[in-house]
Amino acid sequence: MPGLFGTFGIRGIANKEFSPDLAYELGLALATQLGNEGKVAIGYDIRTSSPMLEHALTSGITSGGCDAVRLGMVPTPVLSFGTKHFSCDAGVMITASHNPPEYNGMKFWDEEGAGFVREREDELEQILEEGGKSVEWDEIGKSEERDAISPYREAILEKIPKFDREMKVIIDCANGAGSNLYPQILKELGCEVVSINNEPDGHFPGRPPEPTPEHIKELSEMVSSSDADLGIAHDGDADRTIIVDENGKSLSGDRVFALAAINYLREKENPRIITTVATSSVLDDAAEKLGGEVVRTKVGEPELIREFRKNGGDLAGEENGGVIFPDWVYCREGLMTDIQFIDYIARTEKTVSELDKTLPEYKQLKKKTDCPEELKPKVLEDLSQKLSDYNPDRTDGIRVVFDDGWYILRPSGTEPIFRCFSEAKTEERAEELADEGMKFLKESLKSVKQEN
């Protein structure tokens, strides 16, 4: 069976897979990991179960001798910012990100506001299994409420100058954690802002929290039928951005990342962009325009920061529209991504579609097949042998690169499945690559099952 932690953090159905008891035990385990002293920042998104889980988590943290600094309902980037701003030893964000409303979860952050790396998550899980350490009655930690939103807003407005010209922006907040804050900051930076789905509501009545093209049709229609310069869509905890151009077409997360990088790094010499093995080649095209390089890591936000801390870098991000600006905060930052896009348009006086056309088009396909957890390592090893002539990249799964495209075969970190992603400049070639990858995957799965 897979461990408690997925690619980053823990998620499950609230009150079933993710209960108040588990939240308490995680709080106690975290306090134990910190040596039963120090401060922990706690934030949560708008899900109906979040306040309940915050109470339980706070009890575990204070029972373990640590102080709880409760930031209330905030976007994930504000929790990251607040952890460092209030000199906390760790942070916890109660969120299930883009998952449906019945889910909730937790992500853990270090003293610099970066997500726990795998080793630290594993250590926390080990403490959880063994049982955390409670303290004596006179060593119980304190619990206090603090405002992280005001200093975050002030820091953003101090860092970012007003845009060169007024831009009309339609922002879809998904009734999520950024609903009140992000539209207001964009107004203060000089935008004309129209907000939809901007009343915080854990039932997500406006649309599902995952900003897919299917889910943001209302935004697309509003942008295309008005004189808006662009549309912006966030997920539930507001750490990711999807952009809609002036014609109502939504850009993939890869392209959002690539265009944000071109604007943000335009004056940087030989910039180093960190991304994962699952991200589009459009990042390589962006790096070439900038005279920089792309470094690829394992999948997961903490892996990007691990590489940044080890070897340096100027920007990091994933294929889902999550971009990390390391000179700001060490987590994916929806608002800063918004700002880079608006600035790019205002500065160049080009439309989103015109900027999008400066990068090559790519077609992507995603396929999957069932694979029992216990067979995943053996399937990977068998694939490695079958594909050895291709000299595959083994950073995370098996990535095979050709002159005209690539595919990656990778086991899910949270489900009993194996995935195949492919990319090429034509749909036909992307299909061919996906079919080849799935053929090898099914052959390996069949042979491994026969051996076992």
TrEMBL record:
Transmembrane segments: none annotated. One of its GO terms (biological process) is carbohydrate metabolic process. The lineage of its organism: Archaea, Methanobacteriati, Methanobacteriota, candidate division MSBL1. PROSITE patterns: PGM_PMM. One of its GO terms (molecular function) is magnesium ion binding. The keyword Phosphoprotein applies. It comes from the Archaea. Residues 376-436 form the Alpha-D-phosphohexomutase C-terminal domain. This is Phosphoglucosamine mutase.
